[in-house]
Amino acid sequence: MEPTDAHRATFELGIKFGALYHQFAGTPISPASAAELASAIESAIENQPHCEEVSVGMKTEAIETAVDPDVGYTEFTGEFADVEILVDYEGLEARGVMEMDDGYPRMRLVGIDDTA
Amino acid sequence: MEPTDAHRATFELGIKFGALYHQFAGTPISPASAAELASAIESAIENQPHCEEVSVGMKTEAIETAVDPDVGYTEFTGEFADVEILVDYEGLEARGVMEMDDGYPRMRLVGIDDTA
Amino acid sequence: MEPTDAHRATFELGIKFGALYHQFAGTPISPASAAELASAIESAIENQPHCEEVSVGMKTEAIETAVDPDVGYTEFTGEFADVEILVDYEGLEARGVMEMDDGYPRMRLVGIDDTA
Amino acid sequence: MEPTDAHRATFELGIKFGALYHQFAGTPISPASAAELASAIESAIENQPHCEEVSVGMKTEAIETAVDPDVGYTEFTGEFADVEILVDYEGLEARGVMEMDDGYPRMRLVGIDDTA
């Protein structure tokens, strides 16, 4: 079937999730540095084409629990943030989230809105 | 509108492109090491859910041209590879490519096939 | 020869430079998002063992020049920032910089101070 | 104190460890794809200045244990590989390893040899 603008919107949304995760996974993170990393992730990914809004909610308690006191930090990975992304492709808005699902950071397409 | 399996297929396809690019951009690369990096990228991304096939064609000549002889290598980025990815989500096959377009590595949804 | 604390200090300093560069190379960046990325890089790498201070000076003009107006952003790489890092290993302070040198982002050991 | 060639050798060695870890952490990995990733990491990092040899030994059993059968892969991180790197800076050879130490992937300077 010929791709529609809604398919292109969800394709673009997927790109943002993959980019976000694989750019920043492995970044040293602590409860004290988490907020600055969240802001930088949001503004970095919002630079990408068709990206309207990125929201990164750091789970500070989970980060605190994961930090070995002898080491002082851990590495950013999917279990430490809830992410929501909104893409607008030619009036088609696609929205998705990344949330933990049974120990795995699941990226999920939530909905598509035709705002044209 | 309620997302269909075709929307989910293109969302999954986008994730693979974003992951591939942002995991491996910046990797030191030379004409001699390009083939091993291509193989590793293919088998790494094929691990991801619903990913059927990843094909990375390194542009060895472009890499060779970019390498400063005093340095001996350059960094992997979109201008050095053509990429094709095939995802299968519940019998819906989505296919995309990454190709240079006017100096920018454009990720493009090529088509969706209902193989069910 | 048996490594001394000064050798260990410079080893640790090198780790921070390699980590900084290869974690963040490829991040989408624009003149508007550069400051938040700089802050996040500094606080992320300062989490690492023995790392006293990281200073990232974004070259906003170079970023602005590199941004294709049709695309709106570019990717973070060594040409867009001057970096200075200070490590303290058992009272041995090692300091280094990353600066462009003939088109290549050169990481350079600047000095070692025994503060014990 | 003025840095010596031995200090520069250990600085360069550190760069390679930081680069290796933060370039490839987060890569999707499975027992089947681990060998190709190891080869690609070795040849990629050996491209870097003064880098003589990189050896990445994947811990296939640890990867197998970490893979959730419902997901089929995990992400590359320090617990899944032993790494050894040899740098030669002006006849000064610096050797280091990355090994797990109490749950943390410790990068350690092993020795310096003057081969000049």
TrEMBL record, chains A, B, C, D:
Entry-linked Gene3D superfamilies: 7,8-dihydroneopterin aldolase (MptD) (3.30.1300.20)
Top-level taxon in the UniProt lineage: Archaea
GO biological process terms, semicolon-separated: folic acid biosynthetic process; tetrahydrofolate biosynthetic process
InterPro entries on file: DHN_aldolase_MptD, MptD_sf, MtpD_C
Assigned EC number: 4.1.2.25
Domain spans labelled Dihydroneopterin aldolase MtpD C-terminal: 4-109
Assembly notes: Homotetramer.
Pathway: Cofactor biosynthesis; tetrahydrofolate biosynthesis; 2-amino-4-hydroxy-6-hydroxymethyl-7,8-dihydropteridine diphosphate from 7,8-dihydroneopterin triphosphate: step 3/4
Family note: Belongs to the archaeal dihydroneopterin aldolase family.
Organism encoding this protein: Halorhabdus utahensis (strain DSM 12940 / JCM 11049 / AX-2)
Name of the protein in its database record: Dihydroneopterin aldolase
Function per UniProt: Catalyzes the conversion of 7,8-dihydroneopterin (H2Neo) to 6-hydroxymethyl-7,8-dihydropterin (6-HMD).
Keyword annotations of the record: Folate biosynthesis, Lyase
Enzyme class: lyase
Keyword set includes Kinase: no
Keyword Lyase: yes
Positions annotated to bind substrate: E12, M107
Enzymatic reactions: 7,8-dihydroneopterin = 6-hydroxymethyl-7,8-dihydropterin + glycolaldehyde
Single GO MF annotation: dihydroneopterin aldolase activity
HAMAP family: DHNA_arch
